[in-house]
Design goal:
This protein has 3 domains: 146 residues, Jelly Rolls; 147 residues, Jelly Rolls; 254 residues, TIM Barrel (Alpha-Beta Barrel). The strands form 6 sheets. An 8-stranded parallel barrel has the order 23-24-27-28-29-30-32-33, surrounded by 5 helices. Strands 1, 3, 4, 6, 9 and 11 form a 6-stranded antiparallel beta sheet that branches. Strands 12, 14, 15, 17, 20 and 22 form a 6-stranded antiparallel beta sheet that branches. With 700 residues, it is an alpha+beta fold. Helix content is 20%, strand content 31%. It contains 14 helices and 33 strands.
Length: 700
Amino acid sequence: MKKRTFKSVTLLAVAIVFLVSGVFLKAFPVMQNAKAQSSSVTVINFEGKDTLTFFAYGNAKIATDQSSAIEGKKSIKVTNRKSIWDSLAIDVKDVLKRGKTWVISSYIKHVGKKPIAFSITALYDDGKGLKYVQLGEKIVMPSKWEKIAVKWKPTLKNPSNLIIAIHPTVDKTTAYNVDSIQVMTEETYLSQAIIYKDTFENNTTNWRPRGEGVKIKLDNSKFHEGNESLYVSGRTAFWHGAKIPIIKYVVPGKRYKFSIWVYHTSMDLKRFSILVQRKMADEAQYRYDWITSKEVAGDGWEEISGSYVVPDNGKIEELEFYIESPDPTLSFWVDDFTISDTMKLQQPNYSLPSLKEKYKNDFKVGVAIGYGELINSIDKQFIKKHFNSITPGNEMKPESLLRGPDKYDFTIADAFVEFATKNNISIRGHTLVWHNQTPDWFFKDSNGNFLKKDELLKRLKKHIYTVVGRYKGKIYAWDVVNEAIDETQPDGYRRSNWYKICGPEYIEKAFIWAHEADPQAKLFYNDYNTEVPQKRMFIYNMIKNMKSKGIPIHGVGLQCHINVDSPSVEEIEETIKLFSTIPGLEIQITELDMSFYQWGSSVYYVEPSREMLLRQAKKYYELFNLFRKYKKIIKSVTFWGLKDDYSWLRGVFNKPDFPLLFDEYYDGKPAFWALIDYSVIPQNINLPAPPAIPKLNTKK
């Protein structure tokens, strides 16, 4: 797979979408220690004033435990277990009404010696027998209170029974405690995170037109909710739109979710982008931070949402959110704009075992990050705990460093090196030579004509000397040349501007000059789809030929942008086997992620199904077993992104994707646990048949 070809200093969209029915298979975080604030919230804390019936389900026994509680003085201990269904349950038949989406959460603590997968499951009798819906699943560490939370929108019509069971997914015997069960509507849940909201009901005081001639006004002909929206018209340029100052609502160094609903009447799909414009006190120019883009169909309201880290590396004088469209004359409506602080909804799972410690005797475990992660304290903590290598995802590519011929801005690149050095983390440089994200002017003279071969090579040499020389002794490895092979060409070389002007010679020259600039740095050729036989043979022959000439190439980077279905682990091993036959060649896995989608797939996952999560976990487990098998030549494995909502794949497929180890709430997915201890991963998709629901008369 190819990487993104756009600059992304800020972070990709955070999609929060709701399950209509069926299974929501990951822990959904809820406000820590939240209190009941309205009639839409029910709290069961076992302190003697609970309003819902709770009871022992199956053969379990339950008792009040005053020795351990997440809040208050009491919790419920569940014992006498011989089945996964031997558990604590609550009667929710009179609470979970149809037509609403509900959040159900609970704290759990168990006495097992290993992590245990727990589920929240709805069980009901619809007149045709007892059925269940597994709403969510979370792997819980031993001897520690952890929260599992799920969403569900019931579609049942007057079931005779409806209960929620809180139980281990596989474990049949371990005793555990339950405390602080919460049931709330999604509206209540979401309101806890919102720090600013504009519904445009009789008020546009904070919004302004963006661009000369642009007009904004309240309009009651179109609205997402309520009775009015904001109509934006008079646009004559792509950047024209509507804007709002946000500096008084946000804090530097924190991440926020921005959401806005959009409507237009065109017959075609129209792309909209949301961005932030900022003015720093020590800079004369404005900066424009892209948040996300989305194609929106006409005659229907659609939400555009994404996350943004407010910079903390200087004083901000102005900060404005705005929305625009590449169609310069398109008029549109916006409604229900919100700024949310998602940290009000959850706490990162800092107690997870360290990934880098697990593999400290095998290879480096790295992560590709953007500048946004370097200015977010939570991201930095996660990086330091789990990874001992970092790769700047975009910030060392030519277009990120160059401001013009012989004009460089190393501010952000320096920040990566400083962070890595300060925290004893290795850093890979990515990338010196690439056909993408290199400015067009780099290949041309001052008159706009393409340079001659000698002139371009001279410019390339100076660039490599400047960049590699600056970080000599600090960056231990460089992706010197990136994606220069195209297996559809007779000679295997991509017909890039580099090739058209210089032929394949630029590849060898780049390695020679990088070695001259830093003789101690490891130099890699890096590419994707290396599992394709034709492509890997072209790469193999190129590297072998360079080695025979004495060209200083030390390794090959296998990007490993794969998906759950393909390539197979066996195909990846064939690639590793082939390159391991080149004496002295090191292999690094440089850009690992595992998409839920194949290229061109029409499948759309609103949320990851349990089946897909478990399939992904199994393949990650098999992959790392393979990497360990070849650890004498595989010296580093780098993930292309910290967590799912940061992944470049969400921008590529324009739909939710879940390719990494951590979810958007900083919790370990089954894929993470598969790399820590595969034995804790449930192996079966379906649960066994549940026991009958007892008659419920009194609260226990």
